[in-house]
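Weekly structure sync - notes
Attendees: PM, LS, DV (DV joined late)
Agenda: review two folding runs queued last week.

Item 1: First target. Sequence and structure tokens pasted below for the record.
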Amino acid sequence: MWNEKMAARAKCREIDPDALFVQGAAQNRAKLICRGCPVRTQCLAEALDSRIEFGVWGGMTERERRALLRRRKDVTSWYDLLTSAEKRYEEERTQPEPVRTGAPAVSAEPAVPAVAHQ
């Protein structure tokens, strides 16, 4: 599902690609490049669906991706799973807060005494 439109929007298009193909502690710095990227989810999905073995993709190292693939063998399309989860998250995040009137909720159940009878 990765395409030229997505690549054109990726944050990493502005850096040296070798910065994403590092090892050790440098991988943590490379993962920071992905933070806030508008196509991070699609990038990660592409790496997982294509079983890309090297480099930081979508904010995850190859080791992290391998571990995720082992844990979730049931996933047939990472693109579908991740993009639908991202969409649900965005919808929930943009929902307005419910209006609260300040009045306590009234229950139809009778009140239970605080002290049990002996």
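Item 2: Second target, run right after the first with the same settings.
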Amino acid sequence: MNVVYPTLEDVIGQTPLIRLQRLLGPELEARGNVLLAKLEGNNPAGSVKDRPAISMIRRAEERGDIRPGDTLIEATSGNTGIALAMAAAIRGYRMVLIMPEDLSIERAQTMKAFGAELILTPRSGGMEYARDLAEQMQREGKGRVLDQFANADNPRVHYETTGPEIWRDTGGRVTHFVSAMGTTGTITGVSRFLKEQNAAIRIVGAQPQEGSRIPGIRKWPQAYLPKIYDPAGVDELVLVSQSDAESMARRLAREEGLFAGISAAGACCVALSIAQRVENATLVFVVCDRGDRYLSTGVFPA
């Protein structure tokens, strides 16, 4: 009997969709609402970004744009960098990651563990400066930028995998999909799939309030708005404060046993606010990553 064993990249995706048991409370549950969390932290490198990372590399190979041994460059706020570092290790690439210096030490250490090289940029420049530097390095011939912000293989993988998984695992009952917005790949790809199944499904994006710095959630200046973003696929944008997102991260851990990252908690805040004004709704939000990536930030009590 021949046994075919999966490789690491074969187990990316097919993440659990679980029902939260306490956060809604009896009143909102009595209205027929269900709050579901898509556990993307269960991916091998620990986040939703595992999907586009392997997709962008594999499809660039198929087109002949890159080949093993090449140098890949990417600006990242953390999770994409970790996922790309893993994917590059799997498929044999040198990975150079450009990252603002104020992001959590756990993320930087994890990227290095996968063999990636890090370039830290000033906090004041934010992700915009990091993206500009990546493009500059590509122009100088120092490597190939995959560009998660403009690469159609980012939302494509969510259209092909994340969206269908949500539709299947809810039995087609999903009424609201909530996602933090960073590169916008997740919300763009999932929206496209779910809207094709049922145009009435509400797609809601979580963005940070003015002055809030929530890792993984961005409100981009117009000049830096991701090219992959399709605003027609998003029905509502909801602003989340940093304090509310951090508080929700602690609540998820203590009340649900769900150790989630800050952007996931922000999306949960939005989903919970929607649940307070609807009935008979099946609300799905993306748990982008795990809380252990944020221990050094002080969000969780020591």
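Discussion on item 2: The CA atoms of residues 195 and 208 lie 25 Å apart.
Action: LS to circulate a short write-up before next sync.
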